[in-house]
Write a structure and sequence with these properties.
Number of strands: 10
Distance between the termini: 39 Å
Number of helices: 10
Strand content: 5-15%
Radius of gyration: 18 Å
Largest sheet: 8 strands, mixed
Shape: globular
Structural class: alpha/beta
């Protein structure tokens, strides 16, 4: 097992805002990907009174080898969830919010209707808040995607996660081309919505494969990109193949910007929702 380098060691001191966010989430029975995916930045984000809300339950219908979210029977859709999310965002006074979900392959629309309901509730309860939704692939269902684009979020993100050659090992229930098509169809449906994706490094990819992914993303009009280090949640998950240096992350970031991405965040601890508002100046 590889030894974790010093630049990945995160130290936090307790902040009173952490308790405020935790209590708000408990009181409204809301979930965050920060906790469910065991994000290394959750203490920092909660301390700044922000969080990435996760809708449609905590059980995922896919069992991706890199992810810490629970693979289990999906839970019923909660019709009151959109309003509770919107009230929490308003209570926190967020300028920017990210809404994501577990993958719900059991639902005909993949959960797109719930995303749309959350966006509409946010527009009513927190009209000054910019809204990003981080969506699954909806199994390529274009009508499901249209439900989300019709609700007019500011940003729609769909994570590619890794390079094409590693999909069978890392994302066996996903398809590289299908994920690219999600990003392409966001812009085709509504050019005003900004499209975004995130990838992880350290899974065994080569530089040539990473650069080819950049080119594929630009070819479908993807505008925002996040690049971070993969960290295996447990010993039973896909093992880390390498730790990428901060200098190499900087280099990839420079290359991506040169290829035309409007916003790039590239560093070992970057995650797809980390400081997400910076892309829109929030």
């Amino acid at each position: 097992m590889l030894q974790k380098p010093p630049w990945l060691r995160v130290r936090h001191t307790h902040d009173p805002n952490l308790d405020v966010v935790e209590e708000l989430l408990r009181a409204r029975n809301l979930n965050t990907v920060c906790r469910e995916a065991n994000c290394p930045n959750y203490v920092e984000c909660f301390s700044k009174k922000t969080a990435t809300f996760m809708i449609l339950g905590t059980n995922c219908t896919r069992n991706c080898q890199f992810c810490n979210v629970t693979f289990d029977a999906p839970q019923p859709i909660d019709p009151d969830e959109p309003q509770r999310v919107a009230e929490a965002v308003a209570a926190l006074g967020l300028q920017y919010v990210v809404i994501t979900s577990v993958t719900r392959d059991d639902l005909p629309d993949g959960g797109a209707g719930q995303f749309a309901a959350v966006i509409r509730a946010l527009r009513k309860e927190a009209s000054q808040t910019a809204v990003e939704v981080l969506i699954p692939d909806f199994q390529g269902n274009i009508e499901a995607l249209w439900q989300v684009t019709d609700a007019k979020p500011d940003v729609i993100s769909h994570n590619m996660e890794t390079v094409a050659a590693l999909y069978d090992a890392v994302r066996p229930q996903a398809d590289y081309r299908q994920s690219l098509d999600v990003l392409k169809n966001i812009k085709a449906s509504d050019p005003a919505i900004r499209s975004k994706t995130g990838i992880m490094l350290g899974l065994g990819e080569t530089e040539a494969q990473v650069l080819a992914l950049f080119d594929d993303l630009r070819a479908v009009g993807c505008e925002f990109l996040t690049i971070g280090q993969y960290l295996a949640p447990t010993r039973t998950h896909y093992p880390v193949q390498s730790y990428i240096t901060p200098e190499q992350f900087d280099r990839y970031g420079d290359i991506a910007r040169a290829k035309g991405f409007a916003f790039v965040a590239s560093a070992p601890l970057v995650r797809s929702s980390y400081h997400a508002g910076e892309a829109l100046g929030r």
